[in-house]
Design a protein that fits this description.
Blueprint lengths: L1 H26 L1 E4 L20 H17 L13 E5 L5 E6 L8 E3 L13
Parallel strand pairs: 1-2
Antiparallel strand pairs: 2-3, 3-4
Length: about 120
């Protein structure tokens, strides 16, 4: 009887831990392009969610390449199929999907995730 109760509790806590881990992974990565390491990149400097899609793709690909290069595991960080949220220098945000780790246009913006920067109320 006690072992049955223990097994039930173990299953319950296993699923709770699995859900929490999945939620953390699903939340994804957020990269702030306003930070020092990204803001001076040629395709990032003046990019916003209102920029042409090709410019946003190129900027996000540059940011992803730098992020990968500075991570501890550059060949497994942001693999194709993964998504991340990018905050452009003006404060606008969007989610992009990695389609190729080697292409200069290796990202694809996720439709409907673009959010304009909030205006500062004075």
């Amino acid at each position: 009887m006690k072992s049955n109760r223990f097994a039930h509790k173990a299953k319950f806590w296993f699923w709770v831990a699995l859900f929490v881990a999945y939620s953390a992974v699903a939340a994804g990565t957020m990269i702030d392009a306003l930070s020092d390491r990204y803001r001076n990149l040629s395709k990032v400097t003046l990019t916003t969610v209102e920029s042409p899609q090709e410019l946003r793709r190129a900027g996000a690909a540059q940011v992803a390449a730098i992020y990968r290069a500075q991570s501890g595991m550059p060949f497994s960080t942001l693999p194709p199929g993964s998504t991340f949220q990018i905050v452009w220098p003006d404060g606008s945000t969007e989610t992009v999907t990695i389609v190729s780790a080697t292409s200069p246009l290796g990202t694809e913006p996720v439709r409907g995730t673009q959010q304009k920067a909030r205006a500062n109320a004075e």
